[in-house]
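Ticket closed. Logging final result for Amino acid/amide ABC transporter ATP-binding protein 1, HAAT family.
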Amino acid sequence: MVSKSKLLEINNLGKSFGGNWAIKGVDITVRKGELLGIIGPNGAGKTTLFNMVTGFLKPTEGIIRFKDKDIANLKPHNICNIGIARTFQIVKPFGNLSVLENVTIGVLRYERDVNKAKEIAREKVKLVGLEKYMDTTASSLPLGHRKRLEMARALATDPEVIMLDEVMGGLNDDETAEMMNLVKTLHNKGLTILLIEHNMHALMSLSERVVVLCYGKKLADGTTDEISSNQEVIEAYLGSDDDAEN
Ligand SMILES: Nc1ncnc2c1ncn2[C@@H]1O[C@H](COP(=O)(O)OP(=O)(O)OP(=O)(O)O)[C@@H](O)[C@H]1O
Ligand SMILES: [Mg+2]
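Final structure:
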C-alpha cells in the first residue's frame, strides 16, 4: 500500500504561559486526507495546539511544518492563505451580518469580485446545509446552526486542512448527527481534518487515528481500536467519561 504524503509535521512542540507548560514535547504527523481525532481532559492543551498551528499563539519551542515549510512564526492570515483553516471552540460570527455575508467575507480573501465571492459563499452555505438561512442574521441562529456557519466560514477560505475545535459541543442528538454527516462529507471530498471532540461516540466513529493529550503531553497515538483499549488512556480520560457509569 502506498502511504499518503505528510502534510503537517509537529515536532517537540511546546508552549509555556509564564512558566507553566500548556503543551510540552508534542510530536504529531498528519497525512494528506487523514481524519485525525484529538482527545484529552479539559486543560490538556488541545486548543493551545490548534492556536499554535493556526498562528494565534507563537510556540515557545518546537517546529511546525506544513508541506515541508516552517510555519511556526507565520501570522493567522498567512496560515489561512497557505491552506489551513479552523473553527473556534466559542463561535465568533459577525452577529449583525447575515449568514451569506459572514461567509462572503471569508471568500473575499482570495476573490476580489464581490458577485463571484457571493456565488462561492452560497455554495459553502449550501454545503453545510444552511441554504434556508442565507439572509438570516447570524446572531439569531440557534447554536447548532451557528456551529455550521462557523464551518462554512472556515471552508470559505478554500482550505486543504480544517481544524475543528469542538464543533459538536453543546449540540443536541439530531444536530450532532447532522454535524457528523457534514464532517464525513468533507472528509470524503478529500479534506484533511483535525477534530477536537469530547463526544467520544462521534470522535471514535469519525476518526481514522486518534491522538490523546493529557496535561500537555502526548499520552497515545493510534487507531481507534488501539486507543479505546489503551489502559493509560482509559485511566486518564476514557474512564472518567460521564457515559462510563451508564
Ligand atoms: N492564553 C493563555 N494564557 C495562560 N494560560 C493559558 C492560555 N491559554 C491556555 N492556557 C492554559 O493552558 C492549558 C491548556 O488549555 P487549553 O485551552 O489548550 O486546553 P483544552 O485541552 O483545549 O481544554 P478544553 O477541553 O477545556 O477546551 C490550561 O491550563 C489553560 O489554562
Ligand atoms: Mg479547548
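The first strand starts at residue 6 and ends at 17. No further action required.
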